[in-house]
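User: Last request for today: this protein with zinc ion, please.
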Amino acid sequence: MGIMTIRIAPSILSADFCNLERDLDAIATADLVHVDVMDHHFVPNLTLGEPVVGRICQVTSLPVDVHLMIEDPDRWAPEYARLGAASVSFHMGATHAPVRLARQLHDMGCKACFAVRPAEPVEPIFDILDEFDMVLVMTVEPGFGGQKFLSNQMGKVRRLRDEITRRGLTTSIQVDGGVGPSTAATVAGAGADVLVAGSAVYGAQDRAKAIADIRSAAQKAFRA
Ligand code: DX5
Ligand code: ZN
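Assistant: Here's the final one, the structure of the complex with zinc ion:
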């Protein structure tokens, strides 16, 4: 497999929605910006959709990583690719034809990521793993920022990393929920290489320092 590098993806769910441009500028040292789209149906929260994501894609120089926590991503995910998302994540529990959707996103120049909730197993993805650029392992129940990290998801991350390594794939593993300087070593040690952090970045006075702290803790621990 290729050399993997740790990437940090601050989640703007914990940013100030009335000062998004300012809060996007504050994370310029990150690798991606993670944008959580929620629809009040797939999860019990409602955030933002196409008009706001379109503007985010226009004003940030970071690649935009859209995390769809919505029903019918088969219908809506391509809209986010069209708006300029670099990657789109869609959930196992919501997607009817993940392979077809991933191929459609790829045709539009967008990366495809398959997401699993804490109670969903990752093994069903193994047979279609080569269709995806990234797998998102949720380390909280999706819906809200600031929840406690679920360390019981680390077995899933390890099994996934073992499978990726065994097959020589370059698939990234993203972890999302409760990730910060104190949990970064745990997730990277299990084999995750893309770390989403919402409250740990935007809850800090110095966002660049929070990003740097998460990055250095993860880099020391990363298991390829
Ligand atoms: C939760 C979202 C996360 C959220 C993480 O459903 O998918 O991206 O912003 O927030 P923290 O890092 O505060 O747990
Ligand atoms: Zn997310």
